[in-house]
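Let us practice reading a record.
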Amino acid sequence: MTEQSQQSPLRTAVIGVGYLGRFHAQKYRDLPGSQLVAVVDSVPAAAEQVAAELGVPALADYRELLGKVDAVSIVVPTPLHFAVAEAFLEHGVHVLVEKPITETIEQARALIELARRRGCVLQVGHLERFNPAIQAAAKVISTPRFIESHRLAPFKQRGTDVSVVLDLMIHDIDLIQELVGRPIASIDAVGAAVFSQDIDIANARIRFEGGCVVNTTASRVSLKQERKLRIFQDDAYLSIDLQQKILSTVRKRAAGPVESPAQVAIDEQSFDQGDALRSEIAAFLQAVREGSEPVVTGEDGLRALATAIKITELVNQQRQ
């Protein structure tokens, strides 16, 4: 694909307009430089409702769009990610696929290679990368020694087509691997199925080469909602509330008089809630226009998927 002109709008579409896909479609309709040409869903009523809301055609078969669009978001159930993404990439269409990138490592590798061969942008929807608190923290994180993450949510039927590891924990897996920047040395994991047939709560202890240790917990059977990340390094402790968009940084004060009461300096930054999904899609469209690497590459998606699959396997072994 040639670099897109800044003047001509990109023809865009969303495949799968359930709960999350509907929001994708709204962003494409509203973003400058994007012309939303259709929404697609195998459930006609879902497609027609969103299409009527946004004033675009509704389709039941994504294949009707092949050759007629420049870029798409794929927001279908995870087992369908590979087939749908493969069809669009084969036709030279740029793809933003929701996380996890695919069901299997082999499928993810195939999409990455296909996108490379066809000269297409393949971006994976790890939304937390666009969280302003994370973006601010990344600027001060140097060599993490210990990281603790909690991602808790009440039970909802939506999302139970995959385990809590692939549904929720994978967000933190992606963030942690990006922030640590080292290969994983070992993983221990436990978990349980509580309300569904799959894993509803899981905990993993991940050791990275270089010594960083991570303790990460994800639950979709909690009474409260929480998304927090705590990072300890040699010169600071960072507490990130991903939900409230608050970054607290605690550092030791320079040596002062003996009577000085406070030995630590605390800096707290609050960020506007903003619109991470809009930022994610805008970044995708920018990568398409510029022919540049997306913020979250296919390789990033593969890395997070491989770790999530390993954790899932370890939990299932423990459950037997």
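A brief commentary: The first helix runs from residue 19 to 30.
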